[in-house]
Amino acid sequence: MGRKEQRNLIIRFPLSNQLFKEVQQIIGCSAKMISNALKWQQKPETRGRKRATTVKTDRRIVRMAKIQPIITSRKIKDDLKLPVSAVTVRRRLIEAKLSARSPRKAPLLKKWHVQNRLKFAKEHINWPKKKWRNILWTDESKTVLFGYSGRRQYIRRPPGTEFKPQYTVKTVKHGGKKNHGMGMFFILRCWAYLSYTRDHGSV
Predict the structure, then answer these.
(1) Can you point out the beta strands (E) in the chain?
(2) One biological process GO term for this chain (predicted)?
């Protein structure tokens, strides 16, 4: 009888009503082996490589990414002095649903800007489509990415939060790296458009 078979037999043996010496005689083993067999616990089966980071480290990585959405995985690794690669840090962020995404661009608005826009929207919410079709919108401006560094920027954010202020890149109308452009969009009846071009020349 092998050691493994002896251990299994000792574990299953009703020792509550038996003395160690009696069990020794029946199985043919030492008292030390009986004691060790009763203390023995099978280790859980593991597959693959051991995880490189602990639960505590994972929480620190995620916390830093939430505080600084534009931080890179390499910067997190360096700041926290982690003994793992930037790729591992990136994997932990993806597991926490904080993948790197291109940020949405939004105008840098002050409080009164927001109030005026809301006021306009509420005043015109019931306008019929007929009125909107006769409006010509034009705009010519210089768009500047606020804090633009010249490199493509990514941001880490939870799904469905792309328009939250902390996850957007602000644009302003002055200074910095600029892009000039003119845009026009309109919804006009055919006769209205022809009338406009007749009076003002071709567009």
Answers:
(1) 100-101, 104-107, 136-145, 155-156, 168-172, 178-186
(2) DNA transposition
